[in-house]
Structure formats: structure tokens, C-alpha cells
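Changelog note: in this version the structure field was regenerated for every chain. One regenerated record is shown below for reference.
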Amino acid sequence: MKQVYLDYSATTPVKKEVLDQMIPYYTEHFGNPSSLYSIGLESKEAVNKAKEQVASLINADPGEIYFTAGGTESDNWVIFGVADALKNKGNHIITTQIEHHAMLHSCEHLEKHGYEITYLPVNEEGFVSPEDLEKAITDKTILVSVMLVNNEIGTVQPIKELAAVAKKHGVLFHTDAVQGLGNVPIDVKDMGVDFVSLSSHKIYGPKGEGGLYMRKGVKISNFVFGGAQEKGKRAGTENLPGIVGFGAAAELAKKNFDEHVKHCSSLRDYLVEQILEKIPDTYYNGPKDSSKRHPGNANITFEYIEGESILLLLDQFGISVSTGSACSSKSLKPSHVLSAIGIPVTKIHGSVRLTVGDFTTKEDIDYVVEKLELIVGRLREISSVNVEKGW
């Protein structure tokens, strides 16, 4: 059976060029980077090289890159590290209604411990208003966190503008760039940010490896305690093969950036065009301007049916996508992102996220659209909803 993977925002396969560089660090070059003998120093050099590769992708200094176990740890480190370090200054944190759960659940935890959290609203395309941010800042605000690219609808936030507002008030600014890395230009110096969360497995690198850009001089407490790794900031023996893989993936992402964006945006636009043209009562969620959207992201609402049914039936044809709600993870709660942009609950449950990547072909798109037409038609035929009257 034909296999078509259209969930690149969930994770990506490790590219062969990346894997080839990782393998020797499982076997031949296995030394602990903290060791002082030669094979340990050899490993330390590999870690430093990876920092240079990751830093180069976002125009940072290698000394400002700290390796973590992934984007979730990086988000947690920032939120809890700043909250602890600046607790005598204030207890107010500003974020948005459409953040990843790594940020939202961390904020919910802090709320239980006396911190005040402001969740900024977004417009119908998922954009945060700099004016809303300005109004939300108080003399107790210690951190603003706004994700660079939304993982569900692909919105690319005006981070430079938002960070400038925070900076004007002397407030630290963090952006979760997990979905943005390798997909949109990132220049930490130009953006004026203090922290950036990164992840390897979104850019064809290994899972379980991430990073945190931390601007020199910012104040933050440690999150993981133990040894003196990562200049005493993040304890734990380094995941050497993972770090090497992250570095290799970052170097490849920088080299192929223009080609990658052109390939993905072209196929994404073709996918959206074909779906909207061939399947009635469908809607494109998120930014319509491609320059303000993740190049591979397409979030589509199919009226009168449920996204979970579409997902399961597509899987029978070898097609992998994500739904626009959390129902598939044993929760009946609809997507908080689609809710925030004003989509009714009934339509949220009929939403599907499709994301193309480097290995997607036009033939894949044609196959997916063909099967979508068939599946949506069948589901609507047996739906208890009156299509004529709507929900």
C-alpha cells in the first residue's frame, strides 16, 4: 500500500546525511564529553561543533546555545527558571491563548503557586497584537512568551515587534521556535529576543534532543540539577549522538533553507487549492498570506463530519495526518488554538492539519486529495447532520 506522510509538524524522519554523522558517536567516538582523556575531549569537540552549527542557523554565538532533551524542556526551563530568578521583582507572566501545551501547562502550574498569567487573545488568523501586549505589561511583569510559529495553524508572529515592546519595559522575552526552526528565517540578534526554544526532530534530526538560546547576561535559574555540564547551567551527561545529529540537521537546514521553503510552500498551496476546489464546504484556517505562515502547514475544516473519522480512514489508505482537536488523544476538549481564533466547536471537530515536507511529492498530494474526496463524501452520506441546514 502507498504510504504518504503529511504530518511533518508532528515530527520528521532523520535524514541519511544526519544519521551517517550520528552513528560513529554510538560506537567509535563514545567518550563522555566531561572526561579529560583524549576520547572524552574528542566528544567535547563534537559538542562544540554542534553548538556552532545550531548557532549559525539562528545567528547566535555558540556560547549562547545550551542543549536540552527537547523543546518541552527548553520551554519549562525558561518559564520556571525566570519565575525563580526574578521572584523578588514580580510574579506576572504574559503569554498567548494559542501556545503549545509545554508553555500553557507550565503557566497553569505557576498559577497554582501565586503567579499571575495573562493569556493574550489573537485575531481570526492567529496573530497577537503588539498593542494588546503593551496594555498587558505591568510593573510586576517578568517575562513575555510568544511562540514564533503556531503548530496547528502555522501563524508566524511578528516577534521582532513584540520583543521591542517587552524590551521598552525592561521585560525578558522568550519565543518557542520549535515549529519555526528551519522553516522561517530566525535571527536572534535582529529579533531582539532573550530566549529561544529549539528542537531537533522538527528539522530532520533525532528525537529527544533540543536546545535553548539564552542571550548572554540574562538572569535565569537552573532547571535540571546535578553535574557541571553546559557551563553549570544544565546538568546531565550529554546525549552525544543526539547533539551531533542536531548539529548536522541544523547545518543541512541552513544550506537547504531556500529550496526547502520553496518546495513546501508550493506543494502546500497546491494541496489547499485542490481540496477547496474539489471538496465543497471546506475552509482554510489561519493566515491566507503565505509569507506569514509556516511553508508546509495547511489546516482545513471539513464541515458536517469529524476530523478523527477522516484521520482513521486516511490511515487505511496509508496516509498520515493530524486532527484539529485533541479527541484522538482520549480528550473531548476541542483545539484551544482553533477556539481562540473563533471557530465554532462543531467545525473544530471537523478540522484536519496536513503538513508537507522535503519528501512530499506532487503525486502524493494528488493521491491524498483523491482519497479525501472519497472519504469526505462517504462520511457526509452517513452523517446524522443535516447538510442543508448545517450544524
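Spot check on this record: The two ends are 36 Å apart (CA to CA). The chain has a mean pLDDT of 95.
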